[in-house]
Amino acid sequence: MSFSISEKADTIIALATPQGVGAIAVIRLSGKDAIKLTNEVFGGKNLEEQQSHTIHFGTIRDGERIVDEVLVSLFVAPKSFTKENVVEISTHGSSYIINQVIKLLIRKGARPAKPGEFTQRAFLNGQFDLAQAEAVADLIHSDSEASHQAALHQMRGGFSGEIKQLRDQLIHFASMIELELDFVEEDVEFASRDDLQQLVEKLLRVVEQLISSFDLGNVIKNGVPTVIAGKPNAGKSTLLNALLNEEKAIVSEIAGTTRDFIEDEINIGGVIFRFIDTAGLRETTDTIEAMGVSRTQEKMKTASLILYLFDLSDTDMVEINRDINKLENLGVPFVKVANKIDKATEGFITELKDKHPDTIFISAGQKENLEALRTNILDLVNLDKFKTGNTVVTNIRHYDSLVKTRESLLDVLNGIDAEITNDFLAMDIRRSLHFLGEITGEITTDDLLANIFSKFCIGK
After folding, report:
1. For each successive 10 residues of the chain (460 residues), what is the average pLDDT?
2. Domains of the chain
3. Any known ligand binding at 257?
4. Which residue, 165, 148, 162, 169, is CA-closest to 391?
5. Does the annotation list 59 as a binding residue?
6. Which of 97, 219, 255, 332 could form a disulfide with 232, with the two C-beta atoms 3.0–4.6 Å apart?
7. 237 marked as binding residue
8. In whole angstroms, what is the distance from residue 256 CA to residue 230 CA?
9. 255 belongs to an annotated ligand binding site
10. pTM
């Protein structure tokens, strides 16, 4: 989604609120003529004579016909989201009224906005950088406290600030290296190789921290895929229903009733967990159930967390130890959950607590001790780093650029050790700057911008 010069000069229009009938709807315009075009159809004050950040009551008229009574909010350039003239028309939420107003303003000279075009104009006009622009979309789609905080931190420039600091420090040394190339015959050193090495090592530590934060950032943004695994009739479906507080999964005394996956999302402590109730793990001659068991094993390998659920009244210590050994070999974090505590013997509970003290004892059917399970699950996500205000990378594009930055910085260090010439050293530094610049949009292509903003909703 690239734009020509004429397109960037156009006044664009779109519905900024969700489609459908509601109490009100907000129609947004942005562009040099946004106020002028609105004024042509507005019955009320002369909008072109009003101050920025003011709201005006009146009517939208198509000739002599009144379409609706509205409130018009004015944002005069550059004091607006896009840094252009922006108008927001609050109408009644009738689909008919919305369409009439938009069609009327298109006839007057506006054109329909493309997905993300308002935010793209804000970026192109220097309102914020590309990482902040992407955070706008993340904020709109945030569905938990953690994802909201991460998007808000990025939108307000927290992540961009760290990247800018890294880039500014590197630019200084790059300019000194480039300067040395102009004085190569004089054998002058403007940039100390020792100082450069110390700087690059420092930058690498910061980049490594940002890269390592992506695992947590991905969890915050997309949720934690959590598999509930165990024998048939261990109570997996009952546990899913108890956590959801609804009858999502079929519960039956007949073993093997869950043949495929049942998924749903649960918000625990501000983090979204995507729980997956799976087919029971056992040997079976039932072809369909066997397929479910096989797929369960595959799901467990790719999960971020496994709840290993076993029935205290129908499982012995040998079987529990065997299953735990298999889970440890998977290398996926897991929680040992002993179900049906109300049906267990005191002796077995004591033995289990002695050999596996980290076991969580619950009764899914009675909804007993589920809060302890939720707390344990949340602890495994380890939000401490996020809660202390440290920057967390949540965007795969940023992660990819940081990985490439790390590779380029390592090339700089290797070049210093090998005592390569300044022109080759400058190339490696410039490559590092390029990848850092991709994150904030100082280095962009039309294809990159098209890919990013095409994923936005229309009207934002």
Report:
1. 56 92 93 96 96 97 95 96 96 94 96 93 89 83 76 80 84 73 55 79 89 81 83 83 66 41 74 74 45 59 83 87 85 88 87 90 89 87 59 86 92 87 82 88 78 82
2. 5-127 (3.30.1360.120), 136-217+395-441 (1.20.120.430), 225-385 (3.40.50.300)
3. yes
4. 162
5. no
6. 255
7. yes
8. 11
9. yes
10. 0.70
